[in-house]
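Incident review: delayed structure delivery

Summary: a single-chain prediction request sat in the queue longer than the usual turnaround. Root cause was a stuck worker, restarted by the on-call engineer. No data loss occurred. The affected request and its eventual output are reproduced below so the record is complete for anyone auditing the incident later.

Affected input:
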Amino acid sequence: MKSLLLFFFSLYFQTNIWGASIETIRVPNEGIQPQAVVDQSGILHLIYFKGDANGGDLFYVRQMGGDTTFSVPIQVNSLPSSIIATGTVRGAHVALGRQGRVHVSWMGSADANGGSHDKLPMFYTRLNDAQTGFEPQRNVVQQAYGLDGGGSVAADTLGHVYVAWHAGSEEASRKVWMVKSDDDGKTFAQEKPVWSKQTGACGCCGMRIFSESSGALYVMYRSATEMVNRDMFVLQSQDYGQTFHGVKVHGWVVNSCPMSTSAMFQGKTNTWAAWETKGQVYFASVSDLENVKLMTPNGEGDRNKHPALAQNKTGEVLLAWSSGSGWKKAGTLEYQLFDRAGKPLGTPIVGELVPVWSKPTVVAKPKGDFVVLY
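Output delivered after worker restart:
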C-alpha cells in the first residue's frame, strides 16, 4: 500500500507541482517504432511501422493542435514491404524541413532488394507539395553499401536535407556516410564519409543525424574501436556538413553489440542527445561539445534501452525509455521528468508494455505539455 501511494504521489508531483502535463498514447492502429515531431504551429507529425518485422510498411498521420485524434493514415513507402523493424534499431526516422515539409528515411528490406541482403538500400522520401502523399521512395546509396544498423534523416529551415548511415565490411573500419541536398530533398550529392577519425562503428547499433533549425548539424553513433570500445560519439558541424568536430561523450568497453539507439532534440537554448550505456539511459546537452555533462534517471538501470527525450518551453526535460526489452521481447515504458538544471523530479514512472521491436518517442507541445507515444 505504501509503495502504491508513493507511486501516485510521484506522478502528481511531477505533473502538477512542476507544471508539466505528461500524456502517454499508444501508437494508432497498433503500430510500432513511432517517430514524432511537432512543428511551430503545434501540429504533431507521426510515422509508425506496420506489418511483418522483416519487411513491412510505414504510415504517416498528423494531429492538429488541440485535437485528440489523428488524421487518416497515409502510406509513406511506395514499394510495399520495403522497411525493416527487426531488432528495433533499423526503423525509419522523420525530420521537418523548410516550410514544415516532412522528410523520411529508412533502411530497405531484403524484399525491396530482390530478396537479397547484399547491398541493402537506404531509402528517402518526402511529403509532396500538396501534402496529400509521399513522393516515390529513392535509394540514396551510390557506393557506400553495407547497411546494418539503419540510418537517419535531418533537415533545416534553409532547405538542407541530410541522410546518413554507417557502412563497411568490418566493424573496426566502418564509417558514417552522408548525402546532402541543398534543394529540400529534390536532389542529393554523392555520399561522403563525415569524419576522418578511425573509430569504427558498431554494426547493428542505430545512429542519428540531427539538424537545428538554424543549420547546425549533429551526428551521433556508437564506435567499435578494437572491437571492444563501443563508445558514444557526437559530431558537430557549423558549415552545413562540410566539416565536423567530434568528441567521445561516453565510454563503454564491451565485446558484443548492444543493439542500441539514440535520440536528439532541439530545446529552448540547447540541443540534447540521449543514449544507452551499460544498461542505463543517459542524456546531455551537446551544443558545447567541450562541456558535456551526463544526466541520468533516479535509480539503477539494468536493461534500460531506446531513450527518447524532449524539452518544453519552461526548460523541463522528459526522458522516456523501454525497460527490459530484447530480441523478440517486449519492454516496459518508463519516463522521468527533469528540471531545467537536469535534476530528476520525483522518481521514474512505470507505464504500459512497449510492443516487441518498438520504442517510445517524446514530443513537447507549444504550451509546455509532453506527449509520450509508444
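Verification: The two ends are 28 Å apart (CA to CA).
Action items: add queue-age alerting; document worker restart procedure.
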